[in-house]
Design brief:
By secondary structure, this protein is of the alpha/beta class. It folds into two domains: 8-43, no CATH class; 44-321, TIM Barrel (Alpha-Beta Barrel). 32% of the residues lie in helices and 20% in strands. β8 (170-174), α6 (178-187) and β9 (191-195) form a beta-alpha-beta unit. α4 crosses α5 and α9 (248-257) runs parallel beside α10 (283-295). The longest helix has 14 residues, at 112-125. The N and C termini lie far apart (55 Å). The structure holds S-adenosyl-L-homocysteine. S-adenosyl-L-homocysteine binds next to β8 and β10.
């Protein structure tokens, strides 16, 4: 519009301020400019289709996008802060056998505004004391399969004229797309999480089709080469499935596999559902698995399963709408 650059920054600040829905609200613009913006532009926001709160404080939001697709976002209470779990695609093409989102298939990539907009919409729907400090890209979809929108969303989310999240508090999780993973390390200092779930090809092939394209060796080689920002470690997520990947041997193999990588291991209890033919490992099995890795000097966390009563736990997103009302 031929206006000075600072006007652009001003407008950006308005657009990423919770509650901004009409150019008329931009009170530091002249009336004429507000009218011209309204004539040329349109402010749209994702519509809330669902906002549920779990007994443990986890909140799940479902949004309807302009073309009718529905995506979900989860707000998770942690000690002293909240973490936001965002989606990057409607559906997912990766086909992991244990995951609900995989069952709906791939619908489409999200736009940067739809990814970053999840943080904005959650802030609009919650009191300020529950606004998230951390963001994990662990909702629906494979972030690295939507690379350019992921980068643009990260840029918006960390802009100090906008939501101003710290890159150190953002983690991108991947099922193991090797080329964009290495690019991510070159392009940003964002945290990286790898959904490993198996320490060898035999195990991983059974549950994650992506392993046939980039196998355990290729993935771990890439992790070794990954340009980690100072003081960062790679988080390895390991979903424990009874009788599939949870034996002592699997734990020992995992420990040997990751040797020398600055790593944190996150063990995830499987969230069961009728349609998915796997079971959760027993608590004793999970503890034994954890102890083996601790004895090998790894930092190992057991993730708590939160939001189960509202189907907001890992891998449950979109489960309800496909399966009908839950019991
Ligand atoms: N596509 C990315 C991010 C989304 S999935 C990735 O694969 O990392 C976020 C995490 O939830 C992944 O580690 C995924 O394997 C895990 N997950 C999927 N289904 C699950 C289930 N039913 N129970 C527990 N975790 C699950």
């Amino acid at each position: 519009m031929g206006l000075p650059a600072f006007r652009g920054r001003q407008l950006f600040r308005w657009l990423w301020r919770p509650g901004f829905s009409d150019f008329a609200q931009a009170t530091d613009f002249s009336l004429g400019l507000r009218e011209e913006l309204a004539a040329r532009g349109k402010i749209s926001a994702m519509e809330t289709v669902e906002a549920l709160c779990s007994s443990d404080g986890t909140r799940k939001f479902a949004w309807r996008l302009a073309d009718g697709e529905i995506i979900e976002t989860v707000l998770i209470p942690e000690r002293g802060h909240f973490t936001l779990c965002v989606s990057t695609q409607a559906g997912c093409a990766m086909g992991c056998r244990f995951c609900h989102t995989a069952r709906m298939g791939f619908r489409r990539d999200l736009e940067p505004s739809e990814i970053a907009g999840q943080a904005l919409r959650v802030m609009e729907e919650t009191e300020e004391s529950a606004w998230p400090r951390n963001i994990v890209f662990m909702g629906m979809g494979e972030p690295l399969a939507n690379y350019s929108s992921l980068l643009a969303a990260l840029e918006i989310l960390t802009d100090d004229h906008g939501p101003n999240f710290s890159l150190r508090r953002i983690t991108v999780s991947t099922c193991g797309l090797v080329p964009p993973m290495l690019r991510l390390g070159e392009d940003t200092d964002v945290g990286l999480a790898v959904s490993l779930h198996g320490p060898d090809d035999e195990t991983r092939d059974r549950i994650m089709p992506v392993n046939r394209r980039w196998n355990v060796r290729a993935l771990i080689d890439a992790c070794r080469r990954y340009p980690l920002a100072r003081r960062r470690r790679i988080t390895f997520e390991y979903l424990l499935l009874q009788g599939v990947n949870d034996s002592d041997e699997h734990a020992e193999r995992l420990g040997r596999l990751l040797r020398g990588i600055p790593a944190k291991i996150n063990l995830i209890p499987f969230n069961e559902s009728k349609e998915i033919p796997f079971s959760r490992s027993s608590t004793e099995r999970m503890e034994a698995f954890q102890n083996i890795l601790r004895n090998m000097n790894y930092t190992v966390m057991m993730r708590k399963s939160k939001g189960q009563d509202i189907a907001a736990a890992c891998g449950q997103l979109y489960a309800e709408k496909k399966a009908g009302p839950s019991s």
